[in-house]
Amino acid sequence: HVPQGPVCTNLGLKPGQRLTVKGKIAPNAKSFVMNLGKDATFLGLHFNPRFDAHGDVNTIVCNSKKVEEWGAEHRETVFPFQKGGTVEITFGVNQNDVTVHLPGHQFTFPNRLNLSVFDYFDTQGDFTLQSLSWE
Questions:
Q1: In the chain, fewer beta carbons within 10 Å around the N or the C end?
Q2: Single pTM value for the model
Q3: Which tens digits make up the pLDDT trace of 16-28?
Q4: What are the pLDDT digits (tens) for 67-81?
Q5: Cα distance between residue 13 and residue 132, in whole Å
Q6: Full residue range of the structural domain in which residue 93 is found
């Protein structure tokens, strides 16, 4: 069972708004997860940096989930995370996708579920949430 961090609901993030997440990565981190979506069953973005998990090393794996059905995995090989380090990640919600802003890198992930509002956010795994802000 993956340790569950704080869960946020009723965020009300709409296109043009951004969610900024700050936190600390565990010194012996294998992977961590941030989920953004309508609720726990409709995830528009499953963001999973893997230091060493499921056969991936220093890779960010993104996906979407509709109830129990996962989409196709999307991999980013840029990996600006360090074990034991702190990190700030901003998720920008757009009409058709989400822009993920990482230190020195950004990429977009399509809004496959056509969510008009992102209400739900959670973190799991080897990550401690320090602050969450949205605008």
A1: N
A2: 0.95
A3: 999 999 999 999 9
A4: 999 999 999 999 999
A5: 13
A6: 4-134
